[in-house]
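Model: Ready when you are.
Researcher: Fold this.
Model:
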Amino acid sequence: MELGLNGKVAWVLGGSSGLGRASAQSLARDGALVAISSRDGRTLDEAAAAIESETGSRCIAVPVDVTDSEAIAAGHEKVSAELGPVDILVANAGGPPAGSFEDTDDETMQRAFNLTTASAWRLAHLVLPAMRERGSGVIVFLTSVSTKEIVGGLLLSNMMRAAVVGMAKTMSKELGAHGVRVLCVAPGRVATKRLEELDAGRAARTGETVEEVGRSWAEQIPLGRYGRPEEFGDVVAFAASERASYLTGTTIMVDGGLTNSTHA
């Protein structure tokens, strides 16, 4: 299927590993020019080289700490200078730490807000003016199934990602007339390092093995397994493509049917 991504400029945050890297790889495979960003410059360089080698599309590494507003602005300037105005933003950041309400202090809450919610806000503000000027663009926020059905023990993720969804829906209403689409793609149990850490945390609390935790989750997933990162990345690429040109203001769930919510 031709997605109409050839030559489009995509900026993918958290692109050195996990869901961000998978999204960048899928976009590059369909012809997009991709910039990937994360804090770890060495890992980022290796990921960019691998994506470029495997897909044949240009992929550049732009180190950015998304908790630093000046670093985000500098990253945007570099992406625009080297590849051109951003056509597709994939706003992605590592998840906040696990914990309950009583275990979470003000400082931890503020850090989570800066990491997950404020970074999405700042990134969107940077790319939007050029999108409006051209009358086209796509902003994709990577969120979580917790925005539809909260996940126990992940208070901060439940809070901060829900705020991003509210922002995305509002933006979609305001920007549709300007040719800009805004939506969220929400992973469920997709096999990444972050999920390994969460499973290991549950195993430590309950006395289960990590394998037992994985089997327990898989039994709750209608498709009977964890998702693969590339399966998630392909959904992001489709959502950002011309084939999804009537898709905005919604959250696409990539969870193997795990979530019980009937609300889109």
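Researcher: Now this one.
Model:
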Amino acid sequence: MPPQRTRDDDAQPPDASDDLRERAERAERERDHERRERERLQHENERLRRELERVKRQLDEARRAAHRQAAPFAKALTPHPRRPGRTAGAGYGVKAHRRRPRRIEERHEAPLPCACPHCGGRVRETRVTTQYQEELPVPHVVVRQFRIHIGACRACGRRVQGRHPLQTSDALGAASVQLGAQAIAFAVILNKQLGLSFGKITTLFRQQYRLTVSRSGLVHAVHRAARQAQPTYTALCGQIRGSPVVTPDETGWKVAGHLQWLWAATTPTTTVYAIQPGRGYPEAATLLGENFAGVIVRDGWAPYRRFTSAIHQTCLAHLLRRARELLTDHPRATFVTDVRAILQQALRLRDRHLDGRVSAHGLAVARGQLIERLNRRLDRPGTISDVRRFAAHLAVEWPALFTFLFDPTAIDATNWRAEQALRPAVVTRKICGGNRSPHGAETQQILASVLRTAQQRQLNPHAVLVSLLRAATPIVPLALADRAR
């Protein structure tokens, strides 16, 4: 009799292949999940990286904007500012006042009134004191007539025309009515030095002097002044190229609505401006000369380093500002703290030497110690990417960091001279926006250079312009002829 099948005999044993298949599918699902999660994290990381770069760019732009010269009253006022002026007390210092004039043109008496203005009683004189008033004269236009004698040369037959020393032009006929040298010089100073528009200058002339002149007439007169000053500008450029120490810098400038660059190269007694289409080495070489062999005190702009024949001094103020910004973002960056301390100590060493508290030998010893300290510190910048970029920049600028300590009396530690030279140009740019034409840009650079140099040499810019305008042919004034240092 065959054996009977039980209930347990009907159950089939589990298939091993199904179990493996299920485990494989589960592993595949886990891998897909991990892959999707990894891709999500990568996309999120990329998004955060882009967001970080955007925020950093905005932060850099905000910091640069804070250092730029803003328009008047563009920044918010302090809610509770300190009281203006110096603090009263022993530390106030010498109290200044206007000096008494040496020359007196008019004398007037201020007698007592017949009766007291308060009660009507009789007044008794007790003393007499003196007050001085410095006033502008009542303006009026001086109209001159020149009787021009015209003749012919007996030898060659050519026309010969007389010229008076007060004339500014030989034009006759339709152009016989001219502006004088004083008026043109005044217009040049108002426009190129003080930033006043030609429209406002014509209004001032009409209201204050009753002198009617059109804006185009003023423009032509200013261009004429630039033509007369062209040899002087050429001489100033030669003085800059031959100077032992020059401080250059550049800023944006618009010409006919297109971005160009206003370059400034300055010494203690000379400043030259040049409006050029670019911001690279060719433009800098046009201003300074390719073979410039003096000292260039400049910022960290790379094209300046291509002057291989020159000695360089980089601006420590730019480096200290960058260090301050890095410490704002990375307060625990000891590398930045140490570099800032070394640079500040170098500036204090210079001041102590100039005050006579450190001898030339002591200056040399301390200079060597500072160089060695910074050299050792540059080898350990840390792991922060921003700090490492700062260290790389310092390594590139290494030969130009402490040049000023070799001759503190002649070499500046910062490019403040060029920054100060650019400031009036920046103010003018904020008012007028630039120049309308290349001809106007050329006039701008010539006249601005003459005015700034005259101011540095404590000359009267108005008198300098008048002498240039009254010259029969363009000349170079002796006061601006040769003084490169």
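Researcher: Key takeaway?
Model: Residues 179 and 217 are 9 Å apart (CA to CA).
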